[in-house]
Amino acid sequence: MHANFDGALVPDPFAALLPSDGGAARCTPSYVRQRRRRAAILATTRQLLAAGDEEFTLRRVAERSEVTVQTLRNSFGRRDELMVSAINDHTSAVWEGLARICTGPLLFLNLAEMYFHCASRTPEFLRAMVTSAVANTPALGVTQRHGSSIKTGHLRRLAREGVLRPGADAEALAAQITRLNTFTMYEWANGGEALELRRELAVGNKLLLLGAVRPQHAGEIEAWTPSQAA
Question: Where are the beta strands (DSSP E) in 6-74?
């Protein structure tokens, strides 16, 4: 299924991204308040991250969020750990949006398309997200593991459904796709064009997927083209 990327699908990184319900039993007023406060803090973190390295400090995040620095430390840890939480929060929102429109191998091509739209709409955030993570080895490792874990879950489901070739390593493929996407976006962040990012992500992900799916599923991957909606 090809995604129709309307404005509602691409998550706004500067908005509070509330996750889907974890179950009615947990949704007490106190729990909902905590979730909303956490989402608001992570949104503020992404805003300041996009504004530049000098703007992104625990003190600035605390002031904007009307909490103490100690509260931030207790909830998230150090500055880099807060950054990772904010980035992973956005990554999860991207996947939640994708899961509403497609479930097969095209999910990974639509992920590439999603990042193109992020680069077009909020380039300052995506650029800061990628360059900050790549410049920090521990942060890069955590964010890549988070992305790989989500992809591994989807690929294992595709394996159970008979979409992947016998013996295909879902975990290794997820790690390859994550690395491809991360470093392609890093190259874009250092002066590339959004349309070139779109092309490189689409071509790279197609090649990885074509090597992993059964022949009967290769046609839909080869026929996939990015949407023309900007």
Answer: none
